[in-house]
Write a structure and sequence with these properties.
532 residues, alpha/beta, TIM Barrel, Oligo-1,6-glucosidase, domain 2, Immunoglobulin-like, 3 domains, 8-stranded parallel sheet, 5-stranded antiparallel sheet, 19 strands, binds alpha-D-glucopyranose
């Protein structure tokens, strides 16, 4: 039996915080529910589906970007930080979404994009109007090298130089993503002041927190030094052969997060900061929690990118829990809008493995973030090149984001309950074999009902939401106790008969086979027992 440092982390843990140990649900607004009949999901549609989320048992919803945007990167290119994109609704719709969600006991988080704006943002329009513009220093402009080439070797998210020439001034501007997403200059105090205003504006409107886009990348090296070549041990981190230690991942960001945390804590009802901390190791990820004074939650990409096998996954869990500061809440997620969904990536289409993964995500200590459709076991949808909408992955081999962004299927009727029958959705529904809500709701053996019962079970012992004890792990199986639940995942090809501590009910991903004080778990099945 392994005793973990995280066992003691309970000391500083505050179960009263609404996200602690809870379920956050990631609504990709354009694909959740279309009320307008234009094939694009919107806020009014999402309001209509809040009852579904409440029945599922979610504590908070994170809305993908809803601010006005020319949509070169579907909202991650903001042209106005204090409004709502007309494709998605109005500020009144957002207020209603928040009020309705709150009535159902659900908090609402927005996606904040502080790393860059859209090139159509008035700050950038002003910045490129001349070098004396009051907004010039809002962005990162630099002179060419002597031969006229970009100021350094940094590459953007498509593998092209991260610099585009501003012909009028002869200087280059920086964009770590698309050229239409110029990076903000966080060495400029005016940018800090603007974002404090933005955070306050939304907090004052009842927004309960933010998912912070590119949280690890906001600051750049002040001297704009070249990134060094990547080394072999840099999976999921290297950008096109470079190690991004100067173009992003700068330590100065920690002081920014301390300031934002102080602001968030001025509010009587706790506000939450959740970072998109796309870093390769859990130590670095843990650093974003600071000393309990920076981000409240940080996405765990080492977990998401682990293979779906017990030794590696258990190792990440163990390392995460011992790396986090006392009382910090870990975050587990298997899918998002940038990576392939877990039923495809982890489970490779196997229903049994999908159900195991769902059980794992929902029984680990801390906060689980479900991406819309995860609860159904929704897999990636094949999107033909003609239907692709993502400019960042266009034409790139092995990288395709549209497949994980297709509409939520509420039923199998024309329009799939997502839009009006006959309307073409903004991304395709799929081939007709995809999972939907109507055929799972109320069906005991369905993924949706499995998710609902696991969520009910995990809510029973809130004061134990951070507890975790690994009982045993091998290539064949993984046994742990967490949050008042005993868990066994059978990764082997054989039935395994075990006894699980506890006196409470069992939840199983397969057929429940109970013996005298034992339970038999089929190959690639998992079982949970409540302690009671
Ligand atoms: C984040 C978002 C991604 C976006 C990028 C640039 O990684 O999750 O969708 O393209 O930032 O904003």
């Amino acid at each position: 039996m392994i005793e973990l440092a995280a066992e003691t982390a309970k000391d500083g843990f505050e179960p009263a915080k609404w996200w602690s140990g809870g379920i956050l649900y990631h609504v990709y607004v354009r694909s959740f529910m279309d009320s307008g009949g234009d094939g694009v999901g919107d806020l009014r549609g999402a309001i209509d589906r809040l009852g579904y989320l409440s029945d599922l048992g979610v504590d908070g919803v994170w809305l993908s970007p809803i601010m006005p945007s020319p949509n070169c990167d579907w909202g991650y290119d903001v042209s106005e930080y204090l409004g709502v994109d007309p494709d998605l609704g109005t500020l009144d719709d957002l207020d209603e979404f928040i009020a309705t969600a709150n009535q159902l006991g659900i908090e609402v988080m927005l996606d904040l994009v502080p790393n860059h704006t859209s090139s159509e943002h008035p700050w950038f329009v002003s910045a490129t109007s001349g070098i004396d513009s009051p907004h010039r220093e809002y962005y990162v402009f630099a002179d060419p090298r002597d031969d006229g080439s970009p100021p350094n070797n940094w590459l953007d998210a498509t593998g092209e130089p991260a610099w585009t020439l501003d012909e009028a001034s002869g200087q280059y501007y920086l964009h770590n993503y698309l050229p239409s997403q110029p990076d903000l200059n966080w060495w400029n105090e005016d940018v800090h002041a603007e974002f404090l205003r933005i955070l306050r504006f939304w907090f004052d409107r009842g927004v309960a927190g933010f998912r912070i886009d590119v949280a690890h990348g906001i600051y750049k090296d002040r001297e704009l030094r070249d990134d060094p070549p990547a080394i072999e041990a840099d999976p999921h981190w290297a950008r096109f052969g470079l190690r991004p230690v100067y173009s992003m991942n700068r330590g100065e960001v920690h002081s920014l997060f301390r300031t934002w945390r102080s602001l968030a804590e001025e509010y009587a009802k706790p506000r939450v900061l959740l970072g998109e901390t796309w870093v390769p190791d859990v130590e670095r990820m843990a650093s974003f929690y600071g000393d309990g004074d920076e981000l409240n939650l940080a996405f765990n990409f080492p977990f998401l990118f682990s293979e779906f096998e017990p030794l590696g996954l258990a190792k990440v869990v163990r390392e995460t829990l011992s790396a986090l500061p006392r009382g910090a809440v870990p975050v587990w997620t298997g899918s998002n809008h940038d990576v392939s969904r877990f039923p495809t990536r982890w489970a490779r289409g196997s229903i049994k493995m999908t159900r195991m993964a769902l059980l794992l995500l929902l029984t680990l200590p801390g906060t689980a973030v479900l991406y819309y459709g995860d609860e159904l076991g929704a897999a990636d949808v094949e999107v033909s090149p003609a239907d692709q909408r993502d400019l960042m992955s266009a034409g790139r081999k092995g990288f395709q984001r549209d497949r994980a962004r297709t509409p939520m299927l509420w039923n199998q009727k024309p329009g799939r309950g997502f839009t009006v029958p006959g309307v073409t959705p903004w991304l395709p529904f799929g081939s007709g074999k995809e999972v939907d809500v109507a055929s799972q709701l109320g069906v005991d053996s369905s993924n949706l009902e499995l998710a609902r019962s696991l969520i009910r079970a995990r809510k029973q012992f809130p004061e134990e939401a951070l507890s975790y004890q690994e009982l045993s792990v091998s290539a064949q199986g993984w046994r742990y106790q967490a949050r008042g639940l005993s868990v066994f995942l059978n990764f082997s090809g054989e039935v395994q008969t075990i006894s699980l501590p506890g006196t409470g009910d069992y939840i199983s991903t397969g057929k429940l086979r109970l013996g005298e004080g034992t339970v038999s778990v089929g190959p690639l099945e998992a079982v949970v027992r409540e302690k009671r």
